[in-house]
Prior knowledge:
Helix content of chain A: 55-70%
Structural class of chain B: mainly alpha
Largest interface: A-B, 44 and 47 residues
Number of helices of chain B: 13
Shape of chain B: globular
Number of helices of chain A: 13
Order of helices and strands of chain B: HHHHEHEHHHHHHHH
CATH class of chain A: Mainly Alpha
CATH architecture of chain B: Orthogonal Bundle
Number of strands of chain A: 2
Number of strands of chain B: 2
Strand order of the largest sheet of chain B: 1-2
CATH topology of chain A: ABC transporter involved in vitamin B12 uptake, BtuC
Strand order of the largest sheet of chain A: 1-2
Oligomer: heterodimer
Low-confidence stretches of chain B: none
Helix content of chain B: 55-70%
Radius of gyration of chain B: 20 Å
Mean pLDDT of chain B: 89
Distance between the termini of chain A: 32 Å
Mean pLDDT of chain A: 90
Largest sheet of chain A: 2 strands, antiparallel
Number of domains of chain A: 1
CATH class of chain B: Mainly Alpha
Distance between the termini of chain B: 51 Å
Strand content of chain A: under 5%
Number of domains of chain B: 1
Shape of chain A: globular
Largest sheet of chain B: 2 strands, antiparallel
Strand content of chain B: under 5%
Radius of gyration of chain A: 22 Å
Order of helices and strands of chain A: EEHHHHHHHHHHHHH
Amino acid sequence: MTMPAPYQVSRFGLIDTSPTGTLAALARRSEGLAIPLAALLAGLLLFGLFLLMLGKSPVEYYALVYKAGFGTAFSWQNTLSRAAPLLLTALCVALPARLGLVVIGGEGAIVLGGVAAGAVAMLIPGGGTGFILMMAMFAMLTGALWIGLVGLMRFYRGVNETIASLLMAYIGIALMNHLVEGPLRDPNSLNKPSTLPLTPEQRIGDLPGMDVHWGLAFGIVACVVAWILIERTRWGFAARIAGGNVRAAQIQGLPVGWLIVGFTALGGAFAGLAGMIEVAAVHGSANASLAAGYGYTGILVAFLARHNPLAIIPVAILLGGFEAANGLVQRRMDLPDATVLVMQGMVFIVILMSETLYGRCKLFTPEKWRAT
Amino acid sequence: MSTTVDIGMWGVPLAILGGAIRVSTPFLFVSLGEVLTERSGRINLGLEGTLVFGAMAGYAAAYESSSPWIGVLGAALAGTLFGLLHGWICKFPRVNDIAIGIALMLLGMGLAFFFGKPYIQPVAPDLPSIPLGAWSDIPQVQAALNVNALFLIGIVIALLMTWMFRSSRLGLIIRVAGDSTDAARAMGLKPDRIRLLSTAAGGALAGIAGAYLSLYYPGSWNEGISSGQGLMAVALVIFARWNPLYCFWAALLFGGAGALGPALQSVGITQGYYLFYAAPYVLTLGVLIATSSRNQTLAGAPGALSITR
């Protein structure tokens, strides 16, 4: 196992990979970091250009984002609170992506997970840590069912998972509206139909010594668990094989159907947990505020992190900072609240375009070094 | 409506028919645009964003020029730009057209909300409609058959597109590019350019669908103007087997499903309003499950399409 292979199989056949020194290894590994970083920078520059064309100062914009997102302890707390749901919704994209599936309907799982949490709090009396864990279990189960259904449809009927998951998100939001305005409605919520407010014992508090709720810890733990699952277990390995070539995986006898359903369901469970956290830590009851777009921002987080669960952590914090700063940007620069959406869209497109660069830069491919 | 004749429960099917015609037009335009794009071998999932941006651009252009038709033109132009962007980005190797579609969907909505803020208040001129129900004395019939010109234009485009794919040189070129990149190259065609232009034209049609939303029904610009018509239309194309004429029937069916909730509400059934609101999505999903297949390629699917491989 310790002998370095002098040849490596690639899609071009057997190729000589003789530069095996530390430098070559470092170059290969840094490609996955350098290209997304460069693309992120390019996307932010592009957005700066957009602001410049509108007669706004990009320098002021980024200075404000730094100040309101990362400048003070208070802004960090705001940023981390917003990053918490993004960590979980990004996993809803990143886990199925290991199987080559593009699932983008995390918003539906958040919303229904939140409703499940609100319903549990409403129907079952109680409170405390055990109760909160039970609430989380119900929310995760709801999310797992919702997105797992997408995986099921994909495997058994070949239904395109991207379209199906987004349709499920629309259905989920309609279902939430139905439940919150009908059977689960608190008669006292007049302007904004909601479930009964959670009692203080049912709510999630803050992390010790910080003004950030426990959702952040849940999110980081979920990312680490997902990373271990993907990188260090045989299921993660099998998923990567199935993501590369379904036919080959089936010939190997891998349970492709179980992998697809399992990974989509797990992603959905994390998004459902995000909904429960939003209810139990932020809103205090389930209502239409749950559909705040965290599911859609999570797509961008996952793609920026190249579907690596550990990379999701810094990316979610970065984008959480942009969202946290949006209010200040609106007030100070007289920009509409959709500013952050435009920024996200531009960064997203540049990130996807950067996919074409992999394996093309000489710096990162030691195989090409000898040619010069 | 000034007077209504009591026609009892007959009001429901009539309202659904009228609603189907009204609601189906955006489905028709987006799905025709997507058929054109997918027949050339690419899938553009971003038409939802194009539709929303088209709705904004159309409304703004109609307001500034006080002509609804200039609004439609503006929306088509904006849609073309989005299509060109999609087509251009997708020509780079290893760029995923589905993912680019998602990104463009988010960008299109973001840009529409960004530039659309000042146009939420003002009132733009509406597109005119043709009273095909003038022969009847019953106001409900007249209301149901008040058909917008864009609906009729959509039918004409569907017929033209069917003819184009079946018996014109241009249609053949697009189909070759869609069925096999290699075959197209062997014939001396440039698949990337064909796809670029097809995506651009598809984007223009999706933009017009958006203009219909903001300039006719519901007839105003706001951030919740689209309820996912652009996305449902993409699913509808699979149901319609990439055939423009089937797209028309499918669009009518989806329009009817979308009109179910309001129609029931008009006769006093308000229970479960939000569940009826979900009817088109459930229908789309059901249709996808029924028409997709686990093992074989779908009949009528363009061979080079990433969604069917």
